[in-house]
Design a protein that fits this description.
Elements: E1 2-3, E2 9-11, H1 13-39, E3 72-78, E4 85-91, E5 104-110, H2 112-130, E6 134-139, H3 148-154, H4 180-198, E7 201-211, H5 213-224, E8 231-235, H6 241-244, H7 246-251, E9 259-266, H8 278-287, H9 289-303, E10 308-315, H10 324-337
Parallel strand pairs: 2-10, 5-6, 5-7, 7-8, 8-9, 9-10
Antiparallel strand pairs: 1-2, 3-4, 4-6
Length: 339
C-alpha cells in the first residue's frame, strides 16, 4: 500500500489480488449452499406486536452437496414499511467468544446474495484477532446475485423514467426507482428486531456497507439521515445516479456527532480495452466511477471536515467487482473495531 500526497491510500495489486483469491474461493464454495438452505426459512411479519422468535437453523439434505457455515441463521420477513419481502442472513460469533457488556458490533451488508457469505467468512477468519462481530445480509428473496428490480426500487432516490442508467424490465417498461428512504426505515426500524431476537447486538456500534448502487444508498443515507448507522462504507458508489443527485443530499448534510465514511474504488474502473464497444465506452465514461469518488473524497475533506472522518482506498488494478472480497474483509475489520 502507498499513500498519495492527497491522503488517498492505494492498495497494491499483489495484496488486493491475494485477498480476492481467498474471498472468491470461499464464495464459490459456500455461497450457493447458504442461499438455498436458508431461502426456505420463514417467520411472521415484523408487523406483529409479539416479540420475534429466533428461527432455528435449517440444514440441507445430507446428499445435497451444499454447505452452510456454522453460526448462520436465515429469516424471511415481510416489511410493514413498504410491503416487500426480504431475506435476512445473520452470522453470529462463535459460542466461545464472550460478548461485550453492550453486545457485539453489527455489520450490515447490502446485496446480501453477493456479499453476505464473503463478509461472514471474513468475520470467522478474523474472529480471534478482532473479536466477535455480527454480520447481517439483506436482499430480496431468490438466488440472483443482484436482483435488478429490487435494487433499483430500494437503493435509489426517485429518477425520471428516461434518466440515464434506469434499466428496463422484461416488459420493456423502466424499472421503478425511489424507494431508498423507505428501505432505510426497513433497515433501521425492522431488521434490528430480527437481529436482536437471535444475537446480543449493540445498536450503538453499527456499520453499513454497500457496493455500486448500494454504495449510492450508503451515501444517500449518511447525508440525509446520518444517525441511522455509526459508520458507513461505500465501495464504488454510483454517484452518477440521477445526474449526481447525491450531491444535493450533501448540501444539507450535518451531524451532531462526527461520522466515519470509508470510500473505496477499483483503480481500473475507468480503464477501457481496445476492443470496448461504443456502448461500453459511453457507460464507463458517463459513470466516471474513479473520478466521481475522488471528487467526493476531496469535497468532503474540504467542506465537511468537522462532520465526517473520511478516508479513500483505491485498489490498484482492480475493476468494479474484483476487489469486492477484499473490501468486505476490510469492512469486517473496521466494523469489529468500532468503538
Amino acid at each position: 500500500m502507498r499513500i498519495n500526497r492527497n491522503g488517498t491510500r492505494v492498495k497494491s495489486r499483489r495484496v488486493a489480488g491475494w485477498l480476492r483469491g481467498v474471498g472468491v474461493g470461499m464464495g464459490m464454495g459456500m455461497g450457493v449452499g447458504v442461499g438455498v438452505a436458508l431461502g426456505a426459512m420463514s417467520a411472521p411479519s415484523t408487523a406483529h406486536a409479539a416479540p420475534l422468535q429466533c428461527p432455528a437453523a435449517e440444514s440441507p439434505a445430507p446428499d445435497s452437496g451444499l454447505a452452510v457455515m456454522p453460526g448462520v441463521l436465515g429469516y424471511t420477513m415481510q416489511s410493514a414499511v413498504n410491503g416487500q419481502r426480504y431475506r435476512i442472513w445473520i452470522h453470529r460469533p462463535s459460542a466461545t467468544v464472550q460478548a461485550p457488556p453492550g453486545g457485539f458490533p453489527v455489520l450490515y451488508v447490502l446485496d446480501g446474495n453477493a456479499t453476505f457469505v464473503l463478509a461472514a467468512q471474513a468475520a470467522r477468519l478474523q474472529e480471534r484477532v478482532t473479536g466477535g462481530l455480527i454480520v447481517v445480509g439483506v436482499d430480496a428473496p431468490g438466488n440472483a446475485l443482484f436482483d435488478l428490480p429490487s435494487r433499483y426500487r430500494d437503493l435509489t432516490s426517485l429518477a425520471p423514467p428516461d434518466a440515464w442508467g434506469v434499466p428496463r424490465g422484461k416488459d420493456g417498461a423502466p424499472l421503478k426507482t425511489g424507494g431508498a428512504d423507505a428501505f432505510r426505515e426497513v433497515l433501521v426500524d425492522e431488521v434490528p428486531a430480527v437481529v436482536d431476537a437471535c444475537a446480543h447486538a449493540d445498536r450503538q456500534r453499527t456499520t453499513l456497507f454497500g457496493h455500486s448502487l448500494a454504495g449510492y444508498f450508503v451515501l444517500h443515507t449518511m447525508f440525509t439521515h446520518p444517525d441511522s448507522f455509526g459508520r458507513y462504507i461505500a465501495a464504488s458508489p454510483s454517484i452518477w445516479w440521477n445526474d449526481r443527485a447525491v450531491l444535493k443530499d450533501l448540501l444539507s448534510f450535518g451531524s451532531d456527532t462526527k461520522k466515519s465514511l470509508h470510500l473505496m474504488v477499483g483503480g481500473s474502473e475507468q480503464t477501457l480495452a481496445d476492443t470496448a464497444t461504443a456502448a461500453r465506452v459511453e457507460r464507463v465514461t458517463h459513470a466516471a466511477m474513479n473520478d466521481n469518488v475522488q471528487a467526493m473524497y476531496a469535497r468532503l475533506k474540504q467542506t465537511h471536515g468537522n462532520d465526517v472522518d473520511v478516508s479513500l482506498d483505491v485498489f490498484s488494478g482492480a475493476n468494479h467487482v474484483s476487489y469486492l472480497p477484499a473490501a468486505l474483509s476490510e469492512a469486517v475489520t473496521e466494523a469489529a473495531a468500532q468503538h
